Amino acid sequence: MNQAFTYLWNSKGTLTLAAGLLLGLSYPPFPLPLLIFPAFLCIFRIVDLSTSARDAAFWVYPGFVVWNLIATYWLMLATLAGGVAAILANSAVMTLPVMLQYKFQRSGLSPWLTALLQTASWISFEYLHHHWDLSWPWLTAANAWANVPGLVQYISITGYWGISFWILFTAGLAYQAMRHSSRLLATGSGIAFSAFPLLSLAMLWTAPAPDATTTHEVVVVQPNFDSYHPYGGHASAARANDHLLRLSDSLHTDDTRLIVWPENAIQADVSNRESFGGTSGPTRQLLSRKVKEWGATLITGSTYYKFYPSGQAPELTYGGSNQQPYLPFNAALGFQPDRPLEVYRKHNLVPIVERIPFVHFLEAIDIFGWVNWHHIQGYGKGEQANQFSIRESRTPALICYDSVYPSWIRNFVQQEAGYLTIITNDGWWGNTSGHSQHFAYARLRAIEFDRWIVRSANNGISGIIAPDGSVKVETDYGKTTAFRYEVPVLRSQTLYARFGDWLPAGLLLFLLGGFLYLTLLKGAVSPTE
């Protein structure tokens, strides 16, 4: 037995496959988040066995491919080539912090400081990976614990970065303890492992009563449209609208304040020009009449075409020299009984699928004009954190991918969002783990911001999530349904809402300081290492 363990513990090939398998199985829908701790132990062991930073990256890469395949295989169901490319590319990018971890492992620093710098390397990568055009935060280490909200309540202080810190620092100290045969380091790892969940439980037990004095009756619609058929599988855009209206009418009451339809629910073209496409004007008029009849606000997803006056258009727009410039947006529309149409344009767009990454840079360096970047750019990118007014409160409409970016959502909470509304269409990848993960990750947003979550998904999962991350309503996937719920309106501000990404920003500064120390003062980092 000891010989077998010794062989496995010293085989980089076996370790990388074990790490990939453990990491993949630690994410929803698998109820095995604890596996992420031994997974990172395997990664730290590969780092220690490697002969260079590049060698470490080479050996962890297969494991990261396995991880990405198990957790995000569903990307290939929307587009096979694009899904494969995304998995391989993201796995490659994830090797970058491992190369830094190798440098610190060879630095000669104390094991405590080594573990902390290796933790900072990973979390700094996750943080930066949230803030560029190829952003993909789906596999942030923290997301593995999305379905165990009772043990991660402290993220109302740290943001979900605190979970990543807990995982990496615990595993880092554990590996250093094994490497140095140190009881003190092992004790430190044990304390780190238990302290964060205990803090979370203490926060649950001592949490004050909710300060909600107002509730909104909300109707959530799940139309179950077929994303791969025109008009969602209906005969026309008008028939699709009728389907949505019937579901809404079935539950609407005189007390209803908000009705929520999912992303891309409106199958007609909608624009700021009444005559656009022949359907924009009639659709807007129909829904404007309906919200007056209801006396409630309607939030719905739609592709929205914004036409710009001459001289006021952004740099890259659609439309030829003889056409008025315009951009299409993945948008949320707010129809209200007593206000003009309000529009929120999605800010966080899925790379390649929704928008070409770095399109403005690519257009600038294409001095010969070989590519028509204007017409292949995809959706326009929204830059304003617009919310929708609901009587005395307001709520955003986070569109699909928006909901996995806490730093963006913080803008809405700081502007006094009473609860968070998510509209999404997870039907592109069918009945896979993708929609389960997306729903689970919303539980973290509820805890981070102390807000109720209202979620409308085209095919599911729609639901209601309480501020402690507990699920109050959860629909079945692939079912046409609607439900009504009294949603409390909250005004509290968590420490994370107030101070934002202080933890990853601080760790990034700490990492830079450690790297500069090794490079400039100690001379421990060399190009050939």
TrEMBL record:
One example of a Gene Ontology biological process annotation: lipoprotein biosynthetic process
Pathway(s) it belongs to: Protein modification; lipoprotein biosynthesis (N-acyl transfer)
Main location: membrane
Transmembrane segments: 20-44, 56-74, 80-100, 112-132, 152-175, 184-205, 502-521
Top EC class, one word: transferase
Domain CN hydrolase: 216-489
Domain of life where this protein originates: Bacteria
Cell compartments where the protein resides: Cell membrane
UniProt-listed Enzyme Commission number(s): 2.3.1.269
GO molecular function terms listed in the Swiss-Prot or TrEMBL record: N-acyltransferase activity
InterPro entries linked to this entry: Apolipo_AcylTrfase, C-N_Hydrolase, C-N_Hydrolase_sf, LNT_N
Cellular component, GO annotation: plasma membrane
Record key words, sorted: Acyltransferase, Cell membrane, Lipoprotein, Membrane, Transferase, Transmembrane, Transmembrane helix
Recorded topology in the membrane: Multi-pass membrane protein
Entry-linked Pfam families: CN_hydrolase (PF00795), LNT_N (PF20154)
NCBIfam families: lnt (TIGR00546)
UniProt record similarity statement: Belongs to the CN hydrolase family. Apolipoprotein N-acyltransferase subfamily.
Protein function: Catalyzes the phospholipid dependent N-acylation of the N-terminal cysteine of apolipoprotein, the last step in lipoprotein maturation.
Official protein name in the record: Apolipoprotein N-acyltransferase
